[in-house]
């Protein structure tokens, strides 16, 4: 009870709302800074909640989020890691992400059947929806090559040529490309 009293004394603004239907931008814009998001994310809606966090990235100073370990590992996955996906690339562009701690099932009552992880998100660079659209499509079938995944947007031969000019093979898979590779690729496509 002492901790709750100190939070209120510090001027925290706590609201009881449906996180999926609430307008996060409206709420966050009305708060004095610094603004943070702290959540033990329900595992069945982690994806939609992460999209909400990404959407308000310019409005927050920090987010500390607990989620299922497998999702957290995807967010942390670096180029070359088979866990890397579109979510990895998008969130690593928007945020500097660090692992705070792992949380065992026994820490909950009742214990879930999965391990959890707490991650710290610090805003980094603004988003670029044009790039994120290419990234999502590029990872749409992770076992396929980038050329095959993006072939509905750009001719395969032209895309292979652009990849070659970036020092990448036409057989490169989406998880093998770095963040800068993706942004360079989209910039070249847009030329």
Q: Any descriptors?
A:
Helicase, Ruva Protein, domain 3, 2 domains, 191 residues, Rossmann fold, alpha+beta, globular, 4-stranded mixed sheet
Description:
The protein has helices at 2-9, 24-29, 46-55, 69-76, 86-94, 129-138, 146-149, 156-165, 179-190; strands at 36-40, 62-68, 95-103, 116-123. It has 191 residues and is an alpha+beta fold. Strands 1-2-4-3 form a four-stranded mixed β-sheet. Mean pLDDT is 87; it is low at 1-9.
List the helices and strands and how they pair.
Blueprint: H1 2-9, H2 24-29, E1 36-40, H3 46-55, E2 62-68, H4 69-76, H5 86-94, E3 95-103, E4 116-123, H6 129-138, H7 146-149, H8 156-165, H9 179-190
Parallel strand pairs: 1-2
Antiparallel strand pairs: 2-4, 3-4
Helix pairs in contact: 5-6
């Amino acid at each position: 009870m002492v901790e709750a009293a100190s939070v209120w004394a510090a001027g925290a603004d706590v609201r009881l709302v449906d996180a999926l239907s609430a307008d996060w931008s409206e709420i966050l814009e009305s708060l004095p800074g610094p603004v943070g998001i702290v959540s033990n994310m329900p595992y069945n809606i982690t994806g939609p909640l992460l999209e909400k966090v990404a959407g308000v990235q310019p409005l927050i100073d920090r987010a500390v989020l607990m989620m299922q370990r497998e999702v957290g590992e995807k967010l942390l996955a670096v180029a070359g890691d088979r866990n890397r996906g579109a979510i990895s690339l998008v969130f690593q562009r928007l945020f500097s992400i660090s692992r705070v701690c792992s949380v065992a099932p026994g820490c909950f009552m009742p214990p879930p059947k999965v391990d959890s992880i707490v991650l710290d998100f610090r805003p980094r660079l603004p988003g670029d929806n044009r790039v994120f659209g290419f990234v999502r499509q590029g990872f749409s079938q992770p076992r396929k090559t980038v050329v095959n995944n993006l072939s509905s947007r750009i001719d395969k031969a032209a895309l292979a040529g652009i990849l070659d000019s970036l020092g990448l093979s036409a057989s490169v898979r989406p998880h093998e490309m770095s963040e800068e590779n993706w942004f360079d690729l989209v910039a070249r496509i847009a030329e």
